[in-house]
Amino acid sequence: MRGLSLILIFLVAVFSQSSDSPHGDNLEIGCDDCHNSKGWEIDRNDIIFDHNITSFQLEGLHQYVNCVTCHPTLVFSEAETECVSCHTDMHQQTVGLECVRCHTTNSWMVDNITEIHQQGRFPLLGAHATADCYECHKSASLLLFEPLGVECIDCHRGDYLATTSPNHVENDYSTDCAECHKMDAFSWVGTDYTHAFFPLVEGHAINDCRECHTDPQSYSNISAECFSCHEADYNSAVVPNHQQAGLSTNCNECHTLSVGWSPADFPEHDVLFPIYSGEHNGEWNSCVDCHNNPSNISIFTCIDCHEHNKTDMDDEHQGIGGYLYNSIACLECHPTGSEDGFDHNQSNFPLTGAHTTTQCVDCHTTGYSGTPTICLECHTPDFNQTTNPDHVDAGFSNECLECHTTNPGWTPATFDHDDYPLNGAHASIATDCNACHSGNYSTTPNTCFGCHEDDYNQTTDPPHASAQFSTDCLTCHTELVWDPSTFDHDNQYFPIYSGEHNGEWTSCVECHTVPSNYALFSCIDCHEHNKTDMDDDHQDVTDYIYESNACFECHPLGEEKFNGMYLRFKKPTER
User: Fold this and answer.
1) Does residue 412 form part of some domain?
2) Which end of the chain is more exposed for a tag (fewer CB within 10 A), N or C?
């Protein structure tokens, strides 16, 4: 309670001496709006007075300025609200006294020069928007922005006098730059010059005069003919290749002024293939719709353009000779683009075999009438150049059908091989002459061993060379296969094709257990005898030994009975 009493006493004292206030006689707010009982110093955190109710609201940096900085006399009614009342005019009235036109209360820095200029008498457009202020305002370094002329020539008279392409002075061009040049352009090439004698429209709507007027000294010595400017375009055009096709140099015949040379018309195309008439009229927009390889106009596509798939086309063309699912075949049968095509099978030369994939022009080199139908008429080079076998040296008939069909690659081929009939396994290589003749048809042997010497020498089951087998292969083998084979084993060595061993074996190694030596053989490995039983069975046999050579000596014909004894003998099939 004592503290409150002191405050009341303090306020009474203050009010009682209001006539002595340093703020003047017109102050209408109470002292406690700004001061407190701690002292006359003002604490911004405790101040009650709201400056924004006055005619000068505190914004930006003004919120942090000490009151006495703006109110040095402490008589608040004496403070001015104009910027220049507190701030020195650094621009010396070259831009007026309204600071707020450029500056804000946040900072003296100006970051919207372009926007400020837009509100003035010279908006910054085009290249002016990126120009340095000092280029136009020479005294800007002193913060002085003297008024400048707003006519182009005021700043660009030097450019006007120095221009040579074209020479503005000699050609007495207007000094009103805006008559030809655009203020919102970023270079002088942006021209608005009236070109009525040669309208600059569509593809000719260019901004750089030098693209056409290449001579900077004269703008009059230029032809209005397209080819005079576009000869390089004509020579470099590949879709189609204008030079190779011998197209007219009068560009207007095919082209308009549209950018990119399209759309273009080529009426001569109907001579090659009707696209402006017939079923293709109006069904395309650009050359590349059909000529999908821009670098080679001779390449075209039909199947990419038409909404057909291979399955449907195959079905629709069943039985039509020469049909192929490719664009060249389409054109050859439909040369005018009509649905009705040519069926070669209805002619006197039906297409079969390799002829179905041959392009028409390969046979019809001079047109379609008088084309020969005899093989040799087209295939004489093939006959003369063949080396496997050499048809000319061998004196073969030039009637191709005697040996060949129309199958691709001339194979398979037949030949009257009477001097060496191709039977058995030889029949399977009858079409591969080189397998036996190796490119030489005059020295080819006609005996088995002549071709199969390597087979003879490399055979190990049995080894023919070391066993000195006959080189007449037919003695044991047939022409069908090498196996099975026959060998006079019964009369020369031991009966295996007759007697009790007949049919009881399948391979030589069953008895000749060492493939590298057929002098060795086994009896006891094949028969199910064991030494104990054999010893018992041969107790009365003189010189008995349980060993294969001994078996053979006593049983040279493989019989069970020997010297009045019957030996136990079980066949392999009974095991």
Assistant:
1) yes
2) N
